[in-house]
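Entry:
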Amino acid sequence: MVMYSPAISRKPLRGWLLLLGVGMVFGPMRALSNVLAYADPPMGTAFAKFPTLTHTLLSMDVVSLVLALGLSVVFFRKLWIFKRAFTTVIVYNLLVPLVASVLTSLVTAEPVVPEYVGSWLGYAIVAIPWLIYVHRSQRVRETFVNPLWWAVAGFR
């Protein structure tokens, strides 16, 4: 009887993956700062004027924080689902600002601020090459091979 032997990644994070790893550390911090921004006094007035909108935006930022934390775990555990998780987080982070801007514009009757459009375009310009790299790189294919049970069981 042949026992199943999973392909456990022994490859270190090197090359462009190191730069991506820095993003995996700072991504959750950025998402946490977005969530904590709702505790500022100006947001208190926003909660009073537009409670449903503000709670919706807060919930989208909390989901972003959870996704960023999950992606970091997947990245540093070198799990095989990294490509899917990375794509999900990138698509979510591309769609949420658009949805938030449209919702804010509809509820407050103010036009979309051009700075938001510029920052969204900047994010898209940076995100698309990373998506291409993650999906086409041989290094990524050889590094992220650990099965899910490997992370759940706490193996390294």
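Helices lie at 16-36, 41-49, 51-76, 82-108, 114-136, 138-143, 148-152.
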